[in-house]
Amino acid sequence: MAVIKRIVLILILCLVLVGGASATYVSQYPPAQSFAYVNSTTFVYGGLPYWVTNPALSVVGAWTGNTWAAGVGSKSGRLNIDLGSAKIIKNIKYVNIHNSGGETESGVKNFTFWGSNVGTSWSNLADDTGWTQITASQLSFDQHVASNVADWKNVSVTNTNAYRNYSVKYANNWGGVTVTGMRRIELQTDEAPVASFTANATSGSAPLAVLLTDTSTPAASSWAWGAKNFTPGNNTWFRIGTTTPLATTLGVGNWSINLTATNAAGSDLSDQITWINVTGLPPRSTIQTITHDFGTDITYALVTLTKPGEVFSVSNLTSTTFDLTITNAVSGLAGTNQTVYWCVG
């Protein structure tokens, strides 16, 4: 009995080890939902090609305006998707065509999957120049269930090469006599993002407004920005935001910025070194009370303005002294130190 229990336990462990781990995929979309990035051999105007890659459109309900459909009677052709940059696609997530749960026989059936960094032809089915066929776990898309639901399915892909262009070369449908098409195709990677970002300013005077923008690839879905002031006594990391782009304000110090970018496949902490040096305000001009003699023809004060934007004013002229005040009221005085002569009498 003990031997049988051990065998059963081993079998359970094997099943867990083999079937318990599954890849997490991240959908990659064209830079824009337009003919420039998604096109097909034929289509009807109620089923434009780039609707099939648009995640904002519904995969349930009526198909008009929400699906790609090849021309009437056209059961074979190419659907080409340009991702904008080369990516290693590992999975095809899809919803086959249906119209509020009906007309599912119009869904694409048999297909082959192709990748290219030069080939963009969708008009000539026989021309595979520049295209490389990619091994898929199955060579047919499942027919949508006869129900108005989001019937998501997956076809895994054996692929180690990054391609910018991908093509579904379809051969037939599930018996439909009108159109052939699909509700949605999402090409997916299993890569965590490589975190990177840009800053619109790397130096300036406090308080310094900085805009930080995520440039990670593959795309991230959440962000954690960190900052560390390496000025003595401030040597601590702290979080400054969780959105992109992030508008933040930095005080005096020598700041290092980092980004942790995350998607469904994992996270990455940026290894780039981005320093932002923020200096203090220049000291305001030194003001002294200046004595004038109303008995003379003229007395003047020599004032040196050391901070761009400073202006001066005078008050208390009824006594033998007057008060000279420097303010930052306007930005007209810019650049280096400026000397101003002000006449009293």
Give an overview of the whole structure.
The protein is mainly beta. The chain folds into three domains: 24-189, Jelly Rolls (Sandwich), CATH 2.60.120; 197-279, Immunoglobulins (Immunoglobulin-like, Sandwich); 290-343, no CATH class. The protein is 5% helix and 40% strand. The chain is built from one helix and 24 strands. Strands 1, 2, 3, 4, 5, 6, 7, 8, 9 and 10 form a ten-stranded antiparallel sheet that branches. Strands 12, 14, 15, 17, 18 and 19 form a six-stranded mixed sheet that branches. Strands 11-13-16 form a three-stranded antiparallel sheet, with no helix packed on it. The longest helix is centred in the first third of the chain and has 18 residues, at 2-19. The model is unreliable at 1-22, 282-309, 314-324 and 326-345 (pLDDT under 50).
How would you summarize the topology of this molecule?
Blueprint: H1 2-19, E1 26-28, E2 38-40, E3 68-69, E4 77-87, E5 91-96, E6 111-116, E7 132-136, E8 153-158, E9 163-170, E10 181-189, E11 197-199, E12 203-205, E13 208-214, E14 222-229, E15 237-241, E16 246-250, E17 253-263, E18 266-269, E19 274-279, E20 290-291, E21 300-305, E22 311-315, E23 321-327, E24 338-343
